[in-house]
């Protein structure tokens, strides 16, 4: 793959990456007890990075399975974990959507709370009314249901608050997981008009659901999730969506900078490291490595490197050390880049090529990267400088959701079950 590198003015790439400012750029992550669990989309790191060891790397629908629990309905949302609780969303046909809680130790379903809103929404065949992953601070569970609104429930399933967002007019339905940032919940919904106006990014008080700020956007579609990073001098809210990547002040919603280069449809969640934020877009489109901290349009000044094609359409990137992993889910090919420079280190095929055949985002644990496809296969690849496929695990069930990993255990959501896998 030929790489198109961009440089910042006359500053060399080597000097840029070696600067103290580059080392300070990092994802804003939840602190304290949240670091022990999988409390949000892509885990405590927000990037699919798993600390610790003891996680099995082989399984099937019977091998290393500790328990299975039925999930009524369907959904692409991933499970999250806090203490002995698992939380997940589901849609049982029609216009309904629910939050469910399971006991982590044995898989018993504890409660199911239906969302008090049945607003109809157009949906893609792979989408449902339950595509966004919930988030928790250990007190409340926060869920985004697009046209059905934003809702918070307590650990007993009681609705603490529900905030209507109006009808979201997005031709494939809505997605995008809520971001817990300090005392607020932040979401964005890119769409082409609706009952309360067009695209927006907004923050809500996490205790009451009251609006804190709302900023209009110019985008007609988008299904990604926002992230927050710190540059060493300020926090930035990053939204990678239609045609561009934008940064906002997460306290006020004021736009800080914008960068062109995304394609029309954007789903992957950005990752952060080495002084850059990595944003992928399109159906095997480009990936941009952007230095945050700028002002105005930074396209010509802050793009450190870019790849013209081969990026994920649905799965998010994975950054492990100096290696950036991207899955071209239109062809089932994984590419490993040198994250600092954009150099391609290797490429490898993950099973049979299937167009849009991978939805789950990869995770890395114990020196191995795990890539999942929609058929329930997990490809276990060595986290290293060369492509080494170790083996393939089979769940034998449709699997669109990403797993949660806590205390040596994997938690998978298939099209019919919640499955706990451990040694």
Helix share bin: under 10%
**Alpha-beta content class:** mainly beta
CATH names the topology of the domain at 75-225 as Lipocalin
Mass-distribution shape: globular
| Count of helical stretches | 2
3D structure, described in words:
The chain is mostly beta strands. It has a domain at 75-225: Lipocalin, CATH 2.40.128.630. It has helices spanning 13-18, 20-24, and strands at residues 4-5, 26-27, 65-70, 80-82, 85-90, 98-103, 109-114, 135-136, 140-144, 150-154, 159-163, 179-181, 184-189, 200-205, 211-216, 227-230, 235-241, 244-248, 255-260, 271-273, 276-280, 287-290, 296-297, 303-307, 318-320, 323-328, 333-338, 344-349, 363-365, 368-372, 377-382, 389-394, 404-406, 409-413, 417-421. The strands form 8 sheets. It has a 6-stranded mixed beta sheet, with no helix packed on it. A 5-stranded antiparallel beta sheet has the order 1-24-22-21-20, with no helix packed on it. The radius of gyration is 20 Å and the shape is globular. Residues 1-12 have low confidence and may be disordered.
